């Protein structure tokens, strides 16, 4: 990993229970140009409110994140706790409080165990540089079963730079956004006028195109920090360098988004849903999301049942303009239905073969126009129910 | 059962597989004033299209319904099959084809087994009057575990009359509507100018206020037939008799709607979601539906986990206007949270006690206005996954 000018640290604060590192730090040696996208949920966790206020300045130098407790629905005390955490951290690092971003993920409605959290901060600060990005990825996990890291390299003005990111899922994954945290770091220098727009557009094509169960959480945060430590010239809008950077950012975010779906709670399948032939891209996304969120479709995936009728039904109630007689559907390259009806022949047998795979695609052509969209989802398994029925206990 | 002038019949046509009665008939001795509400899904099954066209005349005398095959996504052949079925039935009964309503429920995308279906119609017609309303309720079941019947009595002009209905669920239950069939019959005489309006309003407060999984099917049909055989005067709008009839209709439909939720696929809990203090009734319904459809909330119900935070999160993303600091929540009469935060004390223990019950209520007060709504839902269990993963096999 060649990412320059960023240091990591991870310690055990026993936020929910002891036994693993659950408090982590990203520290940039210099203040970084930064952008963030937060949950659209009207009920926002305290760290989200605080970080959103601070990111408006376009700068960040550190991020502190805990897993195990979301510090959401915790009222005025929750905000005081978030402020105090970042205050102690800023003092320890010797930076301005406004440059500290703060994230939390875990159970909702329970106050943060501030005694254990503040007690762990000195070790967190002291450990700065002792951890790798993999440790950061591991420390932010909740029901995730594996850490999620992605990276790419590019160059600007003859200088190489890196884009690297981590993410956590794994339930409540839904556009706009979900209990999803992702922190993306680059040592390229990015024009402050460009960073927010480029980041939002990348998030739309990645994290806002995945869904596990249609729930949108109180804590979602996606943060990008660009510290310029690689020594690149400042990448500005309208240049080939900006285009390259945007492409790399897309790749890193899409990698992370797909990893989140693959690690969806109880997921046994990774399914790409492609809608084409819609009247508009917005209609296509509506239809894709209806399919991707349908419990009936997702249980059929789990059961490896080539039940294309449920998919047509989901498209039908999605709100997208649909002419039932024009619908066509493929599982990978197997055409299951055309002109709204079953293709016949050996489609059933071949479609079932596709659904036995761990990864496959569903394509629905609406036959109306040029609109298209792609989203990623998982199946709905017994394990999903077990995980979420028992999460707090 | 005192319902006059209606006859029932049910036979085995082995639509999906042999072993049970899966084809049923309602026959009114005289043409009845009728109204119907159908699925809002853009993908509508052939019998829905045909019945909707016919009900525009405001009259019906017979209904034929099969379970095991939805005759949906079956194209032009599906429509021919629906027409042929009703044609043979009309000839057998000696009535006009336009007076035959037709319903189907079951697997999507598979053509009706017309040989077996048409072969069974003579016995169906011959058996007219040999079956009770319970047999009708049983014959329309798919994954339902028990038949659903409700009835009430009223009187108009000193003459007693009955309102009786049957329904089937049990998955894909969602407003506007779901794989839900309900047939409601009365021997009162209802003014044709009144029946449609009164029926739609009743459906809104009952079947459109329940949800199992947020899916809306291709076949939903809710039919009301009023044949006047009891000898009541014609009940017209604006009279106390109309008000009484509307009240009884509400009760029958709500009884049936609640039975559907109780028999929701894999349901182990029956939960009433009440939202109060919303800016409008529409906002309240939006919030109630978001809670009722959240997989995370429903798995918490299954796990008997008093996870009020997930409920606040669902309210937060519902689209309803929400001020997080004003939210309050009760499980039955146990206040779990006030002013957006945990109530403390023994609320956790007492709330958990409530969730151990088979039936309980969740009330969320948004603290903003006078809007309110009530919806009914179930939990999301392992059994739901099993049923829907294996449905076609």
UniProtKB/TrEMBL annotation, chains A, B:
<feature type="binding site">
    <location>
        <position position="142"/>
    </location>
    <ligand>
        <name>substrate</name>
    </ligand>
</feature>
<keyword id="KW-0028">Amino-acid biosynthesis</keyword>
<comment type="pathway">
    <text>Amino-acid biosynthesis; L-arginine biosynthesis; L-ornithine and N-acetyl-L-glutamate from L-glutamate and N(2)-acetyl-L-ornithine (cyclic): step 1/1.</text>
</comment>
<dbReference type="Pfam" id="PF01960">
    <property type="entry name" value="ArgJ"/>
</dbReference>
<dbReference type="InterPro" id="IPR016117">
    <property type="entry name" value="ArgJ-like_dom_sf"/>
</dbReference>
<keyword id="KW-0808">Transferase</keyword>
<dbReference type="GO" id="GO:0006526">
    <property type="term" value="P:L-arginine biosynthetic process"/>
</dbReference>
<dbReference type="InterPro" id="IPR002813">
    <property type="entry name" value="Arg_biosynth_ArgJ"/>
</dbReference>
<keyword id="KW-0012">Acyltransferase</keyword>
<dbReference type="InterPro" id="IPR042195">
    <property type="entry name" value="ArgJ_beta_C"/>
</dbReference>
<feature type="site" description="Cleavage; by autolysis">
    <location>
        <begin position="178"/>
        <end position="179"/>
    </location>
</feature>
<dbReference type="GO" id="GO:0005737">
    <property type="term" value="C:cytoplasm"/>
</dbReference>
<comment type="similarity">
    <text>Belongs to the ArgJ family.</text>
</comment>
<feature type="binding site">
    <location>
        <position position="179"/>
    </location>
    <ligand>
        <name>substrate</name>
    </ligand>
</feature>
<keyword id="KW-0055">Arginine biosynthesis</keyword>
<keyword id="KW-0511">Multifunctional enzyme</keyword>
<keyword id="KW-0068">Autocatalytic cleavage</keyword>
<comment type="pathway">
    <text>Amino-acid biosynthesis; L-arginine biosynthesis; N(2)-acetyl-L-ornithine from L-glutamate: step 1/4.</text>
</comment>
<feature type="binding site">
    <location>
        <position position="265"/>
    </location>
    <ligand>
        <name>substrate</name>
    </ligand>
</feature>
<dbReference type="GO" id="GO:0004358">
    <property type="term" value="F:L-glutamate N-acetyltransferase activity, acting on acetyl-L-ornithine as donor"/>
</dbReference>
<feature type="binding site">
    <location>
        <position position="168"/>
    </location>
    <ligand>
        <name>substrate</name>
    </ligand>
</feature>
<comment type="subunit">
    <text>Heterotetramer of two alpha and two beta chains.</text>
</comment>
<keyword id="KW-0963">Cytoplasm</keyword>
<feature type="binding site">
    <location>
        <position position="388"/>
    </location>
    <ligand>
        <name>substrate</name>
    </ligand>
</feature>
<feature type="binding site">
    <location>
        <position position="393"/>
    </location>
    <ligand>
        <name>substrate</name>
    </ligand>
</feature>
<feature type="site" description="Involved in the stabilization of negative charge on the oxyanion by the formation of the oxyanion hole">
    <location>
        <position position="106"/>
    </location>
</feature>
<comment type="function">
    <text>Catalyzes two activities which are involved in the cyclic version of arginine biosynthesis: the synthesis of N-acetylglutamate from glutamate and acetyl-CoA as the acetyl donor, and of ornithine by transacetylation between N(2)-acetylornithine and glutamate.</text>
</comment>
<dbReference type="GO" id="GO:0006592">
    <property type="term" value="P:ornithine biosynthetic process"/>
</dbReference>
<feature type="site" description="Involved in the stabilization of negative charge on the oxyanion by the formation of the oxyanion hole">
    <location>
        <position position="105"/>
    </location>
</feature>
<feature type="active site" description="Nucleophile">
    <location>
        <position position="179"/>
    </location>
</feature>
<protein>
    <recommendedName>
        <fullName>Arginine biosynthesis bifunctional protein ArgJ</fullName>
        <ecNumber>2.3.1.35</ecNumber>
        <ecNumber>2.3.1.1</ecNumber>
    </recommendedName>
</protein>
<dbReference type="GO" id="GO:0004042">
    <property type="term" value="F:L-glutamate N-acetyltransferase activity"/>
</dbReference>
